[in-house]
Amino acid sequence: MTPSVERSQVAREAGDALETLRERGRLPRALVGFDGFIDEIIHVVDKRRSMEPGDFERIGTIPEFAARVASAAGKSANIELCVKEARYGGNGPLMGGALGRLGAPVTFIGAVGLGDDPTTLDPIYEPFAQRCERVIPIAPPAHTDALEFTDGKIMLGKTHNVQHVTWGRIREVVGLDALREMCENSDLIGVTNWVMLGGVEGIWEGLRDEVFPSISDRPRRFMVDLSDPAKRTDADIIRAMGILRTINARTPVTLGLNLAESQRIASVMGLRVYDDTSNYSLGAMVRRAAEALRQSLALDTVVVHPREGAGGANAQDSAWYAGPFTQNPKLSTGAGDHFNGGFGFAQAGGLDLAHCLATGCAVSGAYVRDALSPDLDRLVGFLRDLPAPD
User: Fold this and answer.
1) Residue 286, domain extent
2) Which residue from 252, 242, 232, 264 is spatially nearest to 302, judged by alpha carbons?
3) Could you tell me which residues come within 8 angstroms of residue 377 by beta carbon, excluding any fewer than 6 positions away?
């Protein structure tokens, strides 16, 4: 069986499993938090044809942009940024929005409030709130300039506002009893953006110490996204992984990583899984890395999702799924958060690892092609009629 045939079969099986999940009449319920950003989606101008706002050639790739910036060393440069749109963002809202669009009942807590009234929803988040069962603002959002290129994106974050998101603030606004009830009723608890929110470790510890001991131990998932730990120290990473290990002793933890994040965590943990790239395909290397990271970190599940697909490992299995990669995404900001939403939705719904990977890749794949989060019909159709990479 060729890899393409295997991929198509796994995708169809995942689509069938999602249909069965819907027919049961209870899609996974999720609690997600706690960041919030307003994203300006930006194209970088290379050459202008005229002074009409959109009449220019953009810088297409990150290496081209890097070369333009590097050429200014010792001199100066004026680089024009064209804002294509402003939209709600943040790892938590994008993941929560993806889940809500799939039909999951979502409660979101986070930095989505007004600057002068942080417990009132910022109007830019109204489309997000319509996807959720409940949204609880606790702080104003931060801001990101998202420079989009055909081969990736550069996120320039201004994070002051989200530093107000702490365990104490959540307890103050939401209340401990209400938070316990939300967690009790959730099949998936997603906590995102450890890198930019100084309060996330306190939130992890608060959930571990003040919430989880007071709720039932029925099956539920705790999913974590770090959000590019390049700027955090090795000591920070080791401490954070230690906290997640203690949470995993109570509630199974899924750690979602993109390729660069997995390489950094592997390096900090002393794992040499990326040292020899000549003897492994990308899929084999990512699968091997997920296995090693899961064992070293002592977590239930580790998932690694490069642009070309996703690999993962749990105690029972490991797998690689070659995703439907496209060279021409309509929108790339939020692709990883949509992968997390799809994977978390499937995992909380009881799908096996390979089908969770296929679901995550399909949610992300449909999103970057449509510039819209897929609903469950679009997702199932995407999986059953898998597009070829382009």
Assistant:
1) 3-41+87-384
2) 252
3) none
The structural domain count of the chain equals 1
H helices within the chain, ranges in order?
3-23, 62-70, 91-101, 126-131, 167-174, 176-184, 200-206, 234-248, 259-268, 282-297, 335-348, 353-370, 376-384
Is pTM beyond 0.85? Reply is yes
Q: Which residues face 87 on adjacent strands? A: 39
Question: Is residue 317, in this structure, part of any structural domain at all?
Answer: yes
C-alpha–C-alpha distance, residues 71 and 286, integer Å: 35
Axis crossing angle, helix 335-348 with helix 91-101, rounded to the nearest 10: 50
Q: What are phi and psi of 239, to 5 degrees?
A: -65, -45
Q: Is the pLDDT of residue 185 over 50?
A: yes
In single-letter form, the type of residue at position 190 comes to G
Please check whether residue 22 is in contact with residue 376, taking contact to mean a CB–CB distance below 8 angstroms. yes
CATH number at residue 331: 3.40.1190.20
Q: Is 60 exceeded by the pLDDT of residue 331?
A: yes
The mean pLDDT value of the chain amounts to 94
pLDDT at 254: 98
* In the predicted structure, residue 26 carries a pLDDT above the cut 90: no
The answer to whether residue 115 scores a pLDDT higher than 70 is yes
Confidence of residue 389 (pLDDT cuts 50, 70, 90): low
Sheet with strand 106-110: strands edge to edge: 134-137, 106-110, 30-34, 188-192, 221-225, 253-257, 301-304, 309-314, 318-322
Please tell me whether the peptide bond between 34 and the residue prior to it is cis, using omega within 30 degrees of 0. yes
